[in-house]
Amino acid sequence: MLSIKNLSGGYGDKKIIEDVSFEVEKGEMLGILGPNGSGKSTLMKLISGVLPVKEGMITVDGKQIADFPPKELARTMAVLPQLHVHAFSHSVRETVSLGRYPHQSGWFSSWSKEDEQSVIEAMRLMDISHYETSQIDQLSGGEQQRVFVAQALAQNASILLLDEPTNHLDINHQKELLDTIKKQAIEKDLTIVSIFHDINLAAMYCDKLLLLDKGEIYRIGEPHEVVRELDVEAVYRTRVSNHPHPELPKPQITLLPNVKRDISLTQVRAEDFLISSQMVLYRSKVPLKTVSSAVVNPGSGWFRNFMNRHVDAAYNIDNSPAEMKSFIEKNELKSTDTVGMMTAVQTEHAVVKEYEGPFGTVVITVTAGVGNGVDVSKAVERTMHVGTINTWIMVNGTLSEEAFIQAMITATEAKTKALQQERVLDPLTGTIATGTSTDSCLVAATQQGEYLPYAGPITEIGKLIGRGVFECTVEGIKVYREAKKA
Ligand SMILES: Nc1ncnc2c1ncn2[C@@H]1O[C@H](COP(=O)(O)OP(=O)(O)OP(=O)(O)O)[C@@H](O)[C@H]1O
User: Fold this and answer.
1) What is the average per-residue pLDDT within 1-21?
2) Ligand 1 centroid to residue 212 C-alpha, Å
3) Is the CB of 11 under 6 A from ligand 1?
4) Among 3.90.1280, 3.60.70, 3.30.460, 3.40.50, what is the CATH number of 270-485?
């Protein structure tokens, strides 16, 4: 275990690091974050012994590093410095071999099988074996960086100190390098301390993070305790937004630049919806922030085009998102900029209505097919049928994340109430249906105009959504039933 207690130090009389304490267990990776000049490299230099410790103590497994003979310290700690100054041009293999220096009794006098294996293994891990005979100064910045990481790995030390290991690397090599280092940490029980500029990479790979500000610890802990909007904003002096990683339980941040969006005022208007037998289409001049359960581009994003496409009741295609994407492209829309849904309902029966509230307007669009009603409270064996209620809620206003979700809930409750009023039955159970088996919902907002933090049923916008979705769904069901009779 690496233990740092009340560490202070800097350059001559200039104290940079002030009273820093932390511990890193074997197999653990600690990331050091902080703005330029906050003292990250200086802290590393104090730990590695490049700079003298003014106050405090650094111990490895209980033993003070000041008591380590230099070569033993080098066998214990491998350091990847921020800048690599190499006066002499070496080959890649020679450079990596220098990592074995602490294991030699004299310069290459006792090159052992173990030395050879460590060098070969380190080159393999860093994917540089194929240019082992190349001169280091003839490699790209990223290739050089991997050579120096290989040199540190070849040292076979139990502690790795890395100053921006992903410097110069493309995204694939960043991932490869950090995957490798992380794997080494786990398999070989290494203790890793690494400086990062990329907060997201640090959060993804590190067990703990230390946020440094003006030489002092601003915050230390698990990534979710450190990568917090207010702390990152305070230390880096920039606006950020925090969101979850899509696959890992790790926080990620996005910079919020001061670049303003195109403020050409956009209003979603009912009259601008194009309704045909093929589809309901709405094309916005500016992207709308959208949350949906669509076939193409579900989830959240920013999109300009919204399509609810009519498909035959017998539509049954394995890869419907791919087929729907090509349909979108055939209609000369970009599939990356279009949210696409499907329905077997006649799209010319779509109900589109505009509702006005004190903050602005909401446009509701519903296509309702209820031959396939489902009472969600009854679990029975079902086969999938196309028979869908697709509901769009387009808001002329600025919705919070919370409001997007509340708008969906409010819309779903209103839809269910409409089915209840119209006595739409689940054909299998004979009870009132709450929806159909393939309903979709979409909430989109211009993100211009009034800020609407909530969209529950008693808010102004919630009232419009509730009434609007109810009325449009009732009307949609009536039109659907009339058409079925005919
Ligand atoms: N050799 C030096 N002599 C005197 N002061 C130095 C020296 N090296 C760095 N400093 C000062 O120490 C402070 C911390 O520098 P350090 O390099 O540790 O910051 P950092 O957090 O690693 O920054 P960066 O993100 O820019 O790499 C800075 O104010 C810097 O000017």
Assistant:
1) 95
2) 13
3) yes
4) 3.60.70
